[in-house]
Amino acid sequence: MTRDRLGLRPIKIQRRPLRYAEGSALISAGETRVLCAASIEPGRPRWMGNDRRGWVTAEYNMLPRSTLTRTRRERGGASGRTQEISRLIGRSLRAVTDLEALGDFTITVDCDVIQADGGTRTAAITGAYVALHQACQKLAREKTIASFPLRDQVAAVSVGICAGKIALDLDYRLDAAAEVDLNVVMTGAGELVEVQGTAEIKPFSRAELDAMLDLAARGIAVLLAAQKKALRAK
């Protein structure tokens, strides 16, 4: 697999692979593939009470043979990891959504990993934005809402330290051996939404953190361009 000059795996985003969803995208990052589908429903969660804002949420799941060995379906409820990633995707999408402009609607983006080779959560965020954008376009086009509710783009990438060197977009092999592992979520304006970082083997310095964030920002710029290209496609 050939990576680009920054170290990103080949990225491809297919717009609207699903017929019925209000918005959908199939994102490939190297051998990782995630199918994202956005569904529009009237109303908002009950816990919001009389709040007049809309809501954006996400659900993440890994298909049983997305990995080397079969993973059991989560029939008894989502695992802690699944819930944590679902919440991360939802927070990332809400960070660039004007919920007041969304009005009395809830948009749920389902992110199903159909093949996993590292970076599934970051690929899900990048693909979910494309699906969400299409759903918001539908609402605006049909004049169901007064204004387009997305304020900016959002995308994510992993970055880490492997064998003493900073690496971008970690696949499973790199992730398993990483000394430091970060997931970085960033807007089109370059603002940070979330940084999840762990020293797997040894602590890392502030200078190393800054260098990883700088490389992540450069990689995310490429992902943002890929999102725009997918949304322009017929």
How does this model look, in words?
A hairpin with a 7-residue loop joins strand 1 and strand 2. 43% of the residues are buried. The chain has a domain of 153 residues: GHMP Kinase, N-terminal domain (Ribosomal Protein S5, domain 2), CATH 3.30.230. It is globular. With 234 residues, the protein is an alpha+beta fold. It contains 5 helices and 9 strands. The mean pLDDT is 95. The strands form 2 sheets. The chain has a 5-stranded mixed β-sheet with strand order 1-2-3-5-4. A 4-stranded antiparallel β-sheet has the order 7-6-8-9.
Summarize the structure.
This protein is of the alpha+beta class and 234 residues long. Helix content is 32%, strand content 30%.
Name some characteristics of this structure.
alpha+beta, four-stranded antiparallel beta sheet, Ribosomal Protein S5, domain 2, five-stranded mixed beta sheet
